[in-house]
């Protein structure tokens, strides 16, 4: 008698915290659905995960879950933060990782006597198109997971057109010129709101990488997005004709008991005790994510503005946040005193818990899509200071589409920081909270049973089961 195979999904994230986290949450959801899961990190990130996680305990909870790894092509001691890391990675990863992934998949297909068996399908990050190449070569169904916003992805599909029309590279002289050639965003975007790669010369390899990766997406059988129809309906409708299926399954949220909340960085939970001692809605949370780096002058401008606002604050300052420094150095007395009186500084924080804490009133953020979605769900308004990739588009969405925060891009001075902190937490709070609460309700309803994202996740699970049913054992 024929027996239907248990679905086996191999997930291939781009090797950066903001990409790994949502892919890992999806992997856990598929494991909960009874699927076999193989999660493929790069060797460096796999080692980081092992150093700070009880893998044995995790595997007891998820016995169908397997971690594997492949090289990223960079030396083990290569820095892995900032834009330079990403540039080197774009140049090395395909050549090093593609053959290793191919060999891993072949070994899985050739396994005998194993309950795992060959993959039913591959879910590859939208910046890892070599995963699509390998899946096509081995005739395995492949689904792309793009971890940016739908609005930003729609913009990426127009990069070649923007180059052709001479709008790229964006120069400092025309940053406020409206972008008229992206359908649905004609009255929203200025040139300064385009992804950071649009400021590179048109022959720049990073710009060409994004153009190539975006084009390759349409070769996948479907697209997964960490968003909901309610939050990004116009952009999703524009993307619809390009893909057979689009599964909007966000906002993806880490389980409260999940030991992988911080993924690659060790959380300092002392900040939660500090928050417990603060008045309700009195604290500004500040984090620039896992990749953004700042100069010492920029750090000091932010610091002066925050301290001068007179507000309490919790600030995540990674050990590698400041360019060329370890985060040490002489700090003006007034900043030291203001921090001692009203502030808490940690190397990394459990962000979803922080945003959900009743003491937190606002979020000064780099506008990464995970952070943006987490802030939306928590109902916390934002001050946005974008630097990399999709962050410029996201920050414009916050200020002009969802109206749940302020956009501070291309500005870094203490007076602006102080004013926006006061606006967010005092002067314009009532106005900004009306739209913030509305967006929060949309985000939460989407993932509840019967919500749009909940339903789309169920459809994704059923579609993968259908793939497995075509292969009998």
Q: Would you mind describing this structure in some detail?
A:
It comes from Melia azedarach. This is Glycosyltransferase. The chain has 18 helices and 13 strands. Helix content is 45%, strand content 13%. It starts with 7 loop residues before the first strand and ends with a helix. Helix 6 runs parallel beside helix 9 (229-239). The chain is globular. The chain has 473 residues and is α/β, with parallel strands linked by helices. The longest helix is centred in the N-terminal third of the chain and has 29 residues, at 82-110.
Outline the biggest β-sheet.
Answer: 7 strands, parallel
Instruction: Give the strand content.
Output: 5-15%
**What would you report as the Rg, rounded to the nearest angstrom?**
22 Å
Mean pLDDT: 87
Main sheet strand line-up: 3-2-1-4-5-6-7
Measured between the Cα atoms of the first and last residue, the distance is: 9 Å
Categorize the overall geometry: globular
Q: What structural category characterises the helix and strand content?
A: alpha/beta
Give the proportion of residues in helices.
Answer: 40-55%
* Low-pLDDT sequence parts: none
- The strand count comes to 13
Number of helices: 18
Protein name: Glycosyltransferase
Organism: Melia azedarach (Chinaberry tree)
């Amino acid at each position: 008698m024929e027996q239907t195979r248990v679905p086996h999904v191999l997930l291939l994230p781009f090797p950066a915290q903001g990409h790994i986290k949502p892919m890992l949450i999806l992997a856990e959801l598929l494991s909960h659905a009874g699927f076999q899961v193989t999660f493929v990190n790069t060797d460096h990130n796999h080692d980081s995960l092992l150093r700070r996680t009880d893998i044995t305990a995790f595997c007891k909870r998820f016995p169908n879950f397997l971690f594997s790894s492949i090289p990223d092509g960079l030396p083990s001691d290569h820095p892995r933060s900032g834009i330079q890391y990403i540039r080197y990675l774009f140049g090395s990863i395909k050549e090093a990782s593609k053959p290793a992934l191919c060999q891993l998949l072949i070994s899985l297909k050739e396994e005998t006597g194993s309950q795992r068996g060959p993959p039913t399908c591959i879910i590859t990050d939208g910046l890892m198109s070599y995963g699509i190449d390998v899946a096509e070569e081995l005739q395995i169904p492949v689904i792309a997971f793009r971890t940016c916003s739908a609005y930003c992805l729609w913009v990426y599909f127009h990069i070649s057109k923007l180059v052709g029309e001479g709008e790229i590279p964006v120069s400092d002289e025309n940053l406020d010129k409206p972008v008229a050639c992206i359908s649905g965003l004609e009255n929203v975007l200025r040139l300064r709101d385009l992804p950071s790669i649009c400021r590179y010369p048109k022959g720049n390899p990073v710009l060409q990488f994004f153009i190539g990766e975006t084009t390759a997406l349409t070769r996948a059988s479907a697209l997964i997005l960490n968003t909901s129809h309610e939050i990004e309906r116009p952009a999703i409708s524009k993307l619809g004709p390009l893909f057979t299926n689009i599964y909007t399954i966000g906002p993806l949220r880490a389980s409260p008991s999940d030991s992988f909340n911080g993924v690659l960085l060790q959380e300092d939970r002392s900040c939660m005790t500090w928050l417990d001692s603060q008045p309700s809605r009195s604290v500004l949370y500040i984090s620039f994510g896992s990749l953004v780096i700042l100069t010492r002058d920029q750090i000091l401008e932010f610091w002066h503005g925050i301290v001068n606002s007179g507000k309490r604050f919790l600030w995540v300052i990674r050990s590698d946040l400041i360019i060329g420094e370890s985060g040490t150095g002489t700090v003006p007395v007034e900043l030291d005193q203001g921090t001692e009186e009203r502030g808490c500084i940690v190397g990394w924080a459990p962000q979803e818990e922080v945003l959900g804490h009743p003491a937190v009133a606002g979020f000064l953020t780099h506008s990464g899509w995970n952070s943006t979605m987490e802030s939306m769900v928590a109902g916390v308004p934002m001050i946005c200071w974008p630097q990399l990739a999709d962050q410029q588009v996201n920050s414009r969405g916050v200020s002009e589409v969802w109206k749940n925060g302020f956009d501070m891009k291309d500005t870094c001075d203490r007076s602006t920081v102080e004013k926006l902190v006061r606006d967010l937490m005092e002067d314009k709070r009532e106005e900004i909270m009306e739209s913030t609460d509305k967006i929060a309700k949309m985000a939460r309803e989407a993932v509840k049973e019967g919500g749009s994202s909940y339903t789309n996740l169920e459809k994704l699970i059923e579609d993968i089961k259908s793939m497995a049913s075509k292969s009998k054992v």
